[in-house]
Prior knowledge:
The chain is of the alpha+beta class. It is built from 8 helices and 13 strands.
Amino acid sequence: MQCATARHARLALMSALTIDRIAGALGAELTGLDLTRRLGDGELDALRAAVVEHKVVFLRDQHYATQHLERLTEQLGGHGHTPFLEAMPDHPGVVKVVREAHEGGFNFGGAWHSDWSFQPAPPAFTLLWSVDVPTFGGDTMWSNQQLAYETLSDGLRATLDGLDVVHSAGWAYSADGVLARSAKGRSMQINTTDDALSEHAHPAVPTHPESGAKVLFVNPTYSVRFDGWSAADSAPLLQHLYAHSTRDAFTCRFRWTPDTLAIWDNRSTQHNALNDYRGVRRELHRTTVAGTAPTR
Ligand code: SIN
């Protein structure tokens, strides 16, 4: 009896949440939640269901405080491990993603990727809360990797179903990687090291642990080669998959306003922070939620 009452309360809360899709492939704006207070179980279930279904959700006009970001991260499953990036003082799981107005060049997150896909258990979700957004540019894009998988030909899907992909942070974070080479004058604190060269293999097509859908799990930032294949043998097929998986038809693009929280599912998306805001400042605060090892 009590169970039925709790379920009804949950359903009522779910219907209080308004969901407006922002694109055909993925992405939705949510209204009806106030993140300045701790979410109740029903609200949390509804939020989680919306993230898994829409893959990235946006909550605008949510007053930012570091504690709100930390509390929601804990409620969604606890902080993931964040390598290479210096956390904010007194907030070990929170990273300031910032580029000052005078900085040019590389922007953090400015290539298609799924967060920390080289980890044995990559993060389930990432939370990114806007603090200072540019008056122009600085949008972020996401791409739906379930749709990317489902639109491959039967033959390629069958081939990929049996393959593993090796991932590494080396291209980005090694001592002579892209971020080391572009470090001069950068305000964001990034610790590049050859520890980044270590490798970890995951299925090319894991089953999403919550939706049960098969998803393509490769990305041009961290995928290195198919397991058991040379880099040269892997390159043509990987390049084909990178181009396919980020086709316009699978993406959404989000225009940030201050005090907006984005939550995305790294198990079913890639994302890319567009580098088109030269001359203006951009600051967002980021956490990840711990995930599990991808499995078939
Ligand atoms: C990231 O890749 O986590 C950063 C995305 C962004 O700054 O829009």
